[in-house]
């Protein structure tokens, strides 16, 4: 396993249609700063050598929001919203100089409650297990809308199933996918090359990659490391206010976690 520092890919290309605003979702303020800044802060605090923000909708505003980081943040452009898998593919050219064994975090720019300790726990397990991919999960009271973590009888990870594709039994699962991934770069490239468009949406999803790697005989680890509070959705102004309140209670002001 390489001792290379991790790299982070932050998905920040979406609009956030339910926010009742033309501002890209990741630019809405949490703790007095664009919410994507909290994700970048956490990645840097966790030791990431570099961060790639995947931008698209009104990308100039996202770039402006992240301008304070200078060359610590690089940019990849997703011109069309073809799913999370496609977004990560758009970032791969930015990683062309990295070692094959480099651990790559894949995170969402609209998840500002992410913690440095959580990324540390993921990376620690990923390294110790010599894993191809490591996913963090959360157990929540109401899993509606989230992808469910399906395990076998011995508790080993099998796949992520989206709610719309889940059986009644799978929908009862309370362990969900909060979209915290760490994937070895070479395996990320291979997994993405095998992702096919979803039959229902035509989009490519990063959620398919762990199951693909498992099918290739690679090691995929899962760790229940994300507190339920940290995966609160931000899809409406009301939810934005709730997350802002939690963030401020942690930092005491507009400070950093």
Radius of gyration equals 17 Å
CATH superfamily (homologous) name: Spore Coat Polysaccharide Biosynthesis Protein SpsA, Chain A
Average pLDDT for all residues: 93
Largest sheet: 7 strands, mixed
Number of strands: 11
How many helices? The count is 8
Can you tell me the CATH architecture?
Alpha-Beta Complex
Strand content: 15-25%
Low-confidence runs (pLDDT<50, min 5 residues)?
Answer: none
What is the CATH class designation? Alpha Beta
3D structure, described in words:
The protein has 257 residues and is an alpha/beta fold. It has a single domain, classed as Alpha-Beta Complex (Spore Coat Polysaccharide Biosynthesis Protein SpsA, Chain A), CATH 3.90.550. 29% of the residues lie in helices and 23% in strands. The protein has 8 helices and 11 strands. The strands form 3 sheets. A 7-stranded mixed sheet has the order 5-4-1-6-10-7-11, with helices on both faces. Helix 6 packs across helix 7. The mean pLDDT is 93.
Itemize the secondary structure elements and their pairings.
Blueprint: E1 7-12, E2 29-30, E3 33-34, H1 35-45, E4 50-55, H2 59-65, E5 73-77, H3 84-91, E6 103-108, H4 116-128, E7 133-139, E8 148-151, E9 157-161, H5 168-171, E10 175-184, H6 185-193, H7 208-215, E11 220-224, H8 237-251
Parallel strand pairs: 1-4, 1-6, 4-5, 7-11
Antiparallel strand pairs: 2-3, 6-10, 7-10, 8-9
Helix pairs in contact: 6-7
Can you summarize this structure?
This protein is an alpha/beta fold and 257 residues long. It contains eight helices and eleven strands.
């Amino acid at each position: 396993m390489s001792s290379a520092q991790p790299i982070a890919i932050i998905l920040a290309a979406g609009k956030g249609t339910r926010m009742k605003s033309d501002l890209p979702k990741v630019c809405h303020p949490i703790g007095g700063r664009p919410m994507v800044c909290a994700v970048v802060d956490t990645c840097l605090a966790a030791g990431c050598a570099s961060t790639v923000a995947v931008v698209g909708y009104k990308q100039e505003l996202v770039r402006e929001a992240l301008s304070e980081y200078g060359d610590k943040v690089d940019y990849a452009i997703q011109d069309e919203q073809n799913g999370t898998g496609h977004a990560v593919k758009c970032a791969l050219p930015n990683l062309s100089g990295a070692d094959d064994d480099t651990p790559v975090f894949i995170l969402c720019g609209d998840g500002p409650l992410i913690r440095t300790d959580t990324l540390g726990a993921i990376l620690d397990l990923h390294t110790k297990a010599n894993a191809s991919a490591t996913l963090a999960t959360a157990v929540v009271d109401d899993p509606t809308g989230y992808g469910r973590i399906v395990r076998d009888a011995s508790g080993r990870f099998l796949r992520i199933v989206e709610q719309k594709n889940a059986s009644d039994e799978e929908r009862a699962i309370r362990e969900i996918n909060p979209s915290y991934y760490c994937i070895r770069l070479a395996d990320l490239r291979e997994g993405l090359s095998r992702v096919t468009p979803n039959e229902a949406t035509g989009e490519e999803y990063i959620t398919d990659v762990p199951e693909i790697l498992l099918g290739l005989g690679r090691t995929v680890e899962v760790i229940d490391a994300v507190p339920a509070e940290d995966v609160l959705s931000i899809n409406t102004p009301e939810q934005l206010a709730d997350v802002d309140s939690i963030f401020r209670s942690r930092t005491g002001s507009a400070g950093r976690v």
